[in-house]
Backbone:
């Protein structure tokens, strides 16, 4: 296979445009509506828009599409900025569609003066009814006959707040018989007496999406305006407005929305999960939001790699979340510090061990020669994982069992001599012996064992909380499944282990650190850790156990 990646269709367009001299540099924008947190779908759009100008020169604006006063909040603006930066991208200008309200108003006046817009007093039901159907043309009402002067006057009064919400709209006068329903005199402005997060109470009329988005593109001289497929029918109106307003000819291109298996990606649905308490916030590590993935320990590099791998498509499809996890594992394997943590402790006592203060050396990351090693205090009393012992093991159980030997990672080979039980017949302790000549690095014992177990020293280990996450939904295609998406929530998506034991070095863990807890997966510190109370989130397991269990 060739190393060179083929161009995606948008890159092809850009290369043609640059080759033909149509543009010297390209300008793109990422235009989120600040009505929620960014999710993985947005990440693909961010990587595409910023990736293009990184590759071809030019720049990308971050534009908040904040034309809907009711759903938007400053909290979302801040989170969006943080997420884009965290993903590793820098925008040229931070802009707000609401900064263009005066300009957009002037554009509307221009259309009225050209006889291409009118004030309509119909109710929304009447407007919908008069619009016709895809097979039947719509019809104009008497308001469409208003004179330019009357329209100008009414529009000024709309702005001045003389009218109630919903009592009037401004419509473009295009073609009530167009096969494109969006061209049948679309609404440009509506009245909404609502407080806006940036313009306050300055405005009581707000432009509709179609009369803000394209115009904002033109104002910013955006060369390639990239949006998702559902905007294909809007392109005709986008171009009509550019032509009639005689403004910078931005071009709209559409690519397929990206969706992931086992999750939902619409902000509306994610908001429901938050508001109805199915998760504990937008950054709950089970959510597909960028802030949740950050909290869970995903790296920006792995998300960028994932977006690159799935590329840009013209048709919608579901992307296997397993691919995202694969990218995360690949990156973490290179950078994560190896540590030992026992999630379900079983005590072992090494009866023939009497040394004091002996340390063993354990490598921080075998994939990174510069990462060095750390010293771990060995001891007489240790914890191992309960599942690493079986009293009556099947044939190929290479872990600990009565009379069987294993190696303790970076330390000695031990043998299980005796099983100690309580009155209920539960195993509470194992008595073992160690082979003094078998120390890792200087093993002269000649004994070969197949199993190596992780362990912690029972006297120095620190208690930590571990959060294990599973998929938030039980079906692959949540949006495609019958009924309500909430019917498919996985009730066991979070498992909290309150009392795991970690090697003491983890007391120094920082939020940015990435760990591999040997044999247990990749982990990072959770933001709710405080002082002595350490909480670790499992980012991802070491192997794709899900695919195996479910196929
Ligand atoms: P949602 O339905 O989740 O609210 P949206 O499209 O309304 O998504 P916006 O804030 O309007 O969200 O989107 C900002 C940009 O991100 C737009 O250009 C949009 O096309 C893109 N985008 C949103 N969701 C996806 C997705 N799933 N895949 C690819 N791009 C997306
Ligand atoms: Mg939206």
Residues:
């Amino acid at each position: 296979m060739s190393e060179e990646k083929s161009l995606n269709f948008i890159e092809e367009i850009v290369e043609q445009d640059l080759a033909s001299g149509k543009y010297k540099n390209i300008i793109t924008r990422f235009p989120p509506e600040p009505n929620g947190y960014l999710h993985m779908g947005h990440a693909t759009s961010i990587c595409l828009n910023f990736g293009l100008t990184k590759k071809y020169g030019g720049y990308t604006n971050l534009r908040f599409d904040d034309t809907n006063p009711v759903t938007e909040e400053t909290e979302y603006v801040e989170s969006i900025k943080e997420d884009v930066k965290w993903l590793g991208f820098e925008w040229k200008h931070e802009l707000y569609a609401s900064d263009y309200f005066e300009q957009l108003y002037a554009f509307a006046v221009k259309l009225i003066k050209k006889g291409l817009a009118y004030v309509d007093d119909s109710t929304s039901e009447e407007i919908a009814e008069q619009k016709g159907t895809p097979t039947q043309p719509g019809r104009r009402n008497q308001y469409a006959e208003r004179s330019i002067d009357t329209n100008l006057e009414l529009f000024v009064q709309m702005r001045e707040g003389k009218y109630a919400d919903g009592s009037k709209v401004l419509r473009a006068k295009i073609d009530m018989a167009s096969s494109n329903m969006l061209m049948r005199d679309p609404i440009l402005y509506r009245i909404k007496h609502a407080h806006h997060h940036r313009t306050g109470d300055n405005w009581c009329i707000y432009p509709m999406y179609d009369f803000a988005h394209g115009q904002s593109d033109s104002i910013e001289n955006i060369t390639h305006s990239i949006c998702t497929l559902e905007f294909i029918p809007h392109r005709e109106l986008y171009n009509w407005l550019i032509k009639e307003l005689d403004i910078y000819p931005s071009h709209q291109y559409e690519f397929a929305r990206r969706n992931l298996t086992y999750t939902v990606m619409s902000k509306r649905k994610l908001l429901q999960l938050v508001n109805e308490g199915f998760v504990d916030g937008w950054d709950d590590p089970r959510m597909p939001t960028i802030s949740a993935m950050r909290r869970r320990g995903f790296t920006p590099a792995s998300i960028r790699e994932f977006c690159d791998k799935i590329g840009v498509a013209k048709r919608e499809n579901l992307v296997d979340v397993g691919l995202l996890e694969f990218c995360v594992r690949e990156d973490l394997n290179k950078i994560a510090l190896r540590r030992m943590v026992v999630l379900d402790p079983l005590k072992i006592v090494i009866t023939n061990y009497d040394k004091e203060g002996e340390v063993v050396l354990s490598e921080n990351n075998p994939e990174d020669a510069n990462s060095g090693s750390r010293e771990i205090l060995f001891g007489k009393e240790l914890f191992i994982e309960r599942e690493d012992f079986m009293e009556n093991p099947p044939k190929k159980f290479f872990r600990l069992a009565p009379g069987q030997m294993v190696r303790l990672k970076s330390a000695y080979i031990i043998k299980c001599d005796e099983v100690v039980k309580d009155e209920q017949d539960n195993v509470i302790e194992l008595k073992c012996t160690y082979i003094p000549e078998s120390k890792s690095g200087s093993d002269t014992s000649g004994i070969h064992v197949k199993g190596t177990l992780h362990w912690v020293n029972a006297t120095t280990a620190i208690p930590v909380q571990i959060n294990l996450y599973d998929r938030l939904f039980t079906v692959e295609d949540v949006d495609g499944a019958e009924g309500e998406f909430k019917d498919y929530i996985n009730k066991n998506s979070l498992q909290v282990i309150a009392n795991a034991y970690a090697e003491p070095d983890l007391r120094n863990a920082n939020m940015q650190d990435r760990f591999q807890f040997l044999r247990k997966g990749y982990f990072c510190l959770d933001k709710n850790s405080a002082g002595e109370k350490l909480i670790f989130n499992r980012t991802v397991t070491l192997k794709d156990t899900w695919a195996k269990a479910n196929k």
Summary: The chain has a mean pLDDT of 95. The longest strand covers residues 413-421. The radius of gyration is 31 Å.
